[in-house]
Amino acid sequence: MRRNRQLTEQRLVDAVGQVLERDGVLALSASAVAARAGVDKALVYKYFGDLNALLKRYAEMADLWWSAEELLAGLLDETLKINKTMLYSLVLVRLVKALRRRPVALAVLAYEVNNNNILSDILSVKRERETKRLFGALARLLGAPPSADEMVGLTTYMHAITYAALLGRGSAKTVYGIELGTGDATWTRLEAAVMTGARAQFDALRSGTPDRPKSINS
Question: Looking at the DSSP assignment, which residues form a beta bridge with residue 179?
Answer without folding.
Answer: 174
